[in-house]
Amino acid sequence: MAKINQQMTLQFNGREFDLGAVEANVKKDWKDAGKKLSDIVDLDIYVKPEEATVYYVVNKQVEGKVEL
């Protein structure tokens, strides 16, 4: 099966947010905290554009947030 080139964009209140970049920023925040990407088994990302914040939960227990 051929690889699909895709981009997901969230549009809210006249602004656009690249959801691929959101995921990359979450992973960067995790790494910047001295943790390994290979330690991530589950990753839940919650985008709250009205707060300009992304919240995330790694492995159902470690919480974090980054600015949108």
Characterization of the model:
The structure is a single chain. The protein is of the alpha+beta class. The protein has one domain (9-67). The chain has one helix and five strands; from the N terminus they run ββαβββ. The protein has one helix at residues 19-32, and strands at 9-12, 15-18, 43-48, 53-58, 62-67. The strands form two sheets. The chain has a three-stranded antiparallel sheet, with helices on one face. A two-stranded antiparallel ribbon has the order 1-2. The chain is globular and about 35 Å long. The mean pLDDT is 93.
Topology, element by element:
Elements: E1 9-12, E2 15-18, H1 19-32, E3 43-48, E4 53-58, E5 62-67
Antiparallel strand pairs: 1-2, 3-4, 4-5
Tell me the major beta sheet: 3 strands, antiparallel
Widest beta sheet: strand line-up: 3-4-5
As a percent range, the share of helical residues equals: 10-25%
Output the helix-strand order.
Answer: EEHEEE
Supply Rg: 13 Å
State the separation between the terminal residues, measured CA to CA.
33 Å
Strand content: 35-45%
Q: Structural class, from secondary structure content?
A: alpha+beta
- How many β-strands, per DSSP? 5
Number of domains: 1
The overall average pLDDT, rounded, is 93
Number of helices: 1
Contiguous low-pLDDT stretches (5 residues minimum) are none
